[in-house]
Amino acid sequence: MTSSQPPTETPAADPVEDAKPAAAAPIAEGKKQIRKEQLRVLYTSPGFIVGVLIVGFWILASVLPGVLTSFDPKEFVEAGPRVKPGSEAWLGTDKNGWDVYTRVIYGARKILTIAPISTAVAIMVGTFLGLIMGYYKGWVDEILSRVIEAILSIPIILMAIVIIFTFGRSTTVIIGTIAVLFVPAITRTIRSAAIAESDLDYVMSAKMRGESGFFIVTREILPNVVGLVVVEGTVRLGYAIFTYTTLAFLGFVGGNITDADWGIDVSQNYEQIARDIWWPSIFPAAAIASLVIGVNLIADSIDKAVKS
Q: Fewer Cβ atoms within 10 A, N terminus or C terminus of the chain?
């Protein structure tokens, strides 16, 4: 007599689980296509191309100044002091007989070291605080918002001078000072974006799955505000350049005043404009303006690409 055993039951497929990969694939493909379109808009933007060329030139000047000039920034040239721009000296010479063109080239180094580093620090801290405030809200948001409002109520330059007088004029202090000045504004921008994102379905879904707050902030919300972070970073870089040169003009940065520095050179020579000796101060000022314009062109192009 043959014994009969009950047939083994195959577990029924979960239609929800099976639908997840199928639903995720089109979403991922759609996001990839959007990124490609945004990059296409960015790379074909005339403003972006011009901005990259301007900023690229000054980066080259800061990294390899010897490629663009054969003089030393403190070298007395044969043309002599206070020579107007011409064949002897392209941008003229200053009161010390130093070549203005060479000092403009070498002057890019310090500003393109301090401004990007301080901006990067401000972006990291501001993004972190903004995400925390926007996601958790409640008492965390209330306390940090009051602190930010208190900092924003103080004039930027005044606060910078107080910090520098308190902690010194070293490069580290200058970088930290500029970063502190920009953290509140960045935090508010990212906070607003995080609040908007935290109310969307994908965040609610992550909460229902039992994901931790850290996971939701870093893996869900952050990737969706990266475009805004990049735009904010490029915009703040332009402000950082202006802030540093202002502090240098006022004499609140460390180092020797004879070093090639755009802000210091403008400060040392601007009074001579009344005597029709305009080139030692105008050309460093023009260099500052050109760098800021280049950064702003890149920032505007990125903003348009993100919103396209």
A: N
